[in-house]
Amino acid sequence: MDIESLRNYCLSKPAVEETFPFGPETLVYKVGGKIFLICSLDSEEFRFNVKCDPEKAIELRERYDCVQPGYHMNKKHWNTIVVDGTVSNSMLKEWINDSYDLIVESLPAKTREKIKGKK
Q1: CA-wise closest residue to 4 among 50, 39, 53
Q2: Ranges in the chain, pLDDT < 50
Q3: In degrees, to the nearest 5, what angle opens at C-alpha 13 toward C-alphas 10 and 19?
Q4: Distance of CA 49 to CAs 74, 111, 115, 118, Å?
Q5: Does pTM top 0.90 for this prediction?
Q6: Nearest to 99 by CA among 117, 78, 84
Q7: Please, where are the H alpha helices in the chain?
Q8: Domains (ranges, CATH) in the chain?
Q9: Percentage of residues of the chain with pLDDT beyond 90
């Protein structure tokens, strides 16, 4: 996965907004106004942050070297994924999906149903 395939994948999801609220070097994807993925564009290595269930976050960190506590994020709820080729693109997409779904489920019912209706 590279930055363009990450971008295309995120934008293919219903109701996703691409923003740069932290400046031109930090790409942010939101759904319902809430962040589900952050990607630094000026990092030496390609990596991104995704939200994760706290128990699963710990499990993933223990199982995969490329999964680290969320850089500059709440480490209980966020993981940083280093895209180093050690996990498949389908696994990366699964982690993005999990983050997106966690955010959608946290939205008010009316907003959530409106987004789900777009799927």
Answers
A1: 39
A2: none
A3: 50
A4: 11, 24, 22, 25
A5: yes
A6: 78
A7: 3-11, 54-63, 89-106, 109-116
A8: 3-112 (3.90.1150.30)
A9: 85
